[in-house]
Amino acid sequence: MTKRKGRAAVLPTTVHRRPPVLKPDDLVVRHIEEHSGREAAYDFARLPVAPTLQRELAEQFATRVGPEGRWRTLPSSREVWLKVVPFGDWLAELDESPRQTSELTAGIWSAWRLSRPKTTGGTRSISKIAALLRDHPRLPEATRDLMSKRAKDMKVKEVAYSPEEFERIKTIATRKIRSALYRIRENHQTVEQWRAGQLEDGTEEWLRGEALDHIARTGDIPNYISTGLDGTRRRVRPSLRHRDLLGSTPWQRLFLTGEEAASLVVLLIATYGWNAVPTSELTVPEPSPNPGVDGHTIYRVELVKRRRGGANTYETRNLTDWGAGSPGRLIAQAIELTAPAREVLAAEGQPTDRLIVWRANRVRDPERYDPKLFHVGTDGHSFRNLLRIWNEEYGPGITVNLRRLRKTVVGQHKRVPTQHSQDTHDQVYVLPDPQTWKRSESVIAAGIEEALEQARTTVKARITREPTPPAQDTATTGCTDYEHSIFSEHGKPCRASFLLCTACPNAVITPRHLPKLTYLHHALENLRGVVPPAVWNDDWREPHARLTDLKTRPDFTAAEWNDALAAVSATDRAAIDDLLRNGFDA
Question: In degrees rounded to 5, what are phi and psi of residue 196?
């Protein structure tokens, strides 16, 4: 297929009709990605198993990538394919290798499970192959039952970035995007000036505007085909005049590179904490037709999180752009960065509504249709190049893991669920992370101290209105077990201060003990005003707090408390005064 000279070759981005993914006489399963049109082929003939089993595996795989299948993206199908290949190799090495699905016994499946490493990758191998095969009609029921048992999840070793690592990654990504924004904005303004006739004809600035206009319309500067003396076609060469004006890669003046597109995805995740795939697949957020009273632009961002075995999750975010540092400013910049690429796609009759659009770094033959000139979204190759360039520019040690990046934002910065449940937020993003442990140390310590303080200042004695033998009375309460105190060695008489009786579960408080306790509380209140605060806190604060706790309980009314204080006998008063003079000695 050819296109006329001077026009851009683009990547189709509309929804594609899926052709049959598996032909009757073929074992190659073809998966065409729904939104991008990218294609992958998986050849099941390469598996070293019997032809019947090859065919059955291919058919199961084809149902997953077909029109009704669950796998919508190439990474989804490729991940399972990378699990199927070692599974086929393992089956081929068995003494009695199964020739068809009906011969996959429970014993074979159990042996496969045991052969997998006890890692996250091993667990995913088990779950992916089980999901592929367990609904096959000829699979033995015993095997199906085993496949339905969930593989034990391994402990997640992936943790959030440290604050220093996170800030370094975000700073570098911001620097890359800011540089691209200034470059594209400046050159786009030159295009607008040239089109409006604001540049003087024939000047160098006018020639630059002419070249940029051509790039804005076609995706590249004018090219010509060199020919030999015999008239044969040699190769495509860019216009030297325009290349001298704009540099060796003139198209970069208006379009993002793959590495810059990857940097943009990194920055979006680092800012908003979204999942990697929904971020890469974002459509262009539309500004609200009804901005706020202040006139600021509100962008409605639509997120789609694909779920295995269920309906997709759709969420929206309203982000307002009111200037630098506002929630919607990065969205506005992303739209501006990628708008020129979408304009080229629209001019070619293949418009896209995707936000992340970038141009491949390759020389295009204007007489051939090249579907890889413009790309939407990002892929692993883009991120590998990104890391290589970052390491070259900023030194080694820059590692970008999008899952770690999202975990950092969600678990350590936003600290609220984002595209997941509260349970997932707690179990996956917060609790396993060492930074959470470190940040919680002071909180936990304060909680323990508060609990201990509560235990020390709360009455533990049993409160009852039933009469107790007066012979069991201490200087403050009654006692039901004088030889098994929590404050002394068991089997021997308690030697703790009578001020601790209210903190002992062996003690008992009845209305008969109330006069002494009310007088003790009153005396401790008076001591507060005559002894140094440090002394009072060390010696009298806790028994006073327990008596205050007793006073506020519903076991005794305020009237009973006041009447008891008025009814203190001279004997009770002398006993309490003697107790306070002797301090904590019984």
Answer: -85, 0
- Could you tell me where the DSSP H helices lie in 273-379? 276-280, 329-347
Query: What predicted TM-score, i.e. pTM, was given to this entire model?
Result: 0.58
Tokens 């085993």 found at = 146
Comparing C-alpha atoms, which of 256, 219, 212 is closest to residue 348? 219
CA distances from 428 to 304, 412, 423 (A): 20, 12, 8
Strand partners, 300: 286, 318
Helix %, strand %, coil % of the chain (to 5): 50, 10, 40
CB 158 within 8 A of CB 403: yes
The confidence band for 1, taking pLDDT boundaries of 50, 70 and 90, is very low
CB neighbour list of residue 535: distance below 8 Å, 6 or more residues apart = none
Report the distance separating Cα 486 and Cα 352, nearest Å.
Answer: 76
Q: Which residues of 49-71 are buried (b: 16+ CB within 10 A; e: fewer)?
A: bbeebbbbbbbbbbbbbbeebbb
Q: Are strands 39-43 and 28-32 parallel, antiparallel or unpaired?
A: antiparallel
CA–CA distance, 358 with 386 (Å, rounded to integer): 14
Strands 462-463 and 507-509: parallel
C-alpha to C-alpha distance for 185 and 191, rounded to whole angstroms: 10
Contacts 24+ apart (CB under 8 A), 551-560: 551/521, 553/459, 553/463, 555/463, 556/511, 556/514, 560/511, 560/514
- The CA distance from 268 to 550, in Å, is 57
Give the pLDDT band of residue 18 (cuts 50, 70, 90). very low
Question: What is the H or E stretch that residue 560 is in?
Answer: helix 558-566
Please give the Cα distance from 476 to 510 (Å, whole number).
11
Mention every residue, 6+ apart, whose C-beta is less than 8 A from residue 351. Answer: 13, 14, 342, 345
- 361-415 confidence digits (pLDDT tens): 765 444 443 446 788 887 666 667 777 777 777 766 677 888 888 888 876 655 5
Mean pLDDT of 171-192: 93
Contact at 8 Å (CB) between 281 and 36?
A: no
Q: How far apart are CA 505 and CA 497, in angstroms?
A: 15
Structure tokens given for 354? 């995707």
**Integer Cα distance of 200 and 206 in angstroms:** 6
Which structure tokens are listed for 551?
């006073």
Residue 86: its H or E element:
helix 74-92
* Residue 256 CB neighbour total at 10 angstroms: 27
Amino acid at 48: P
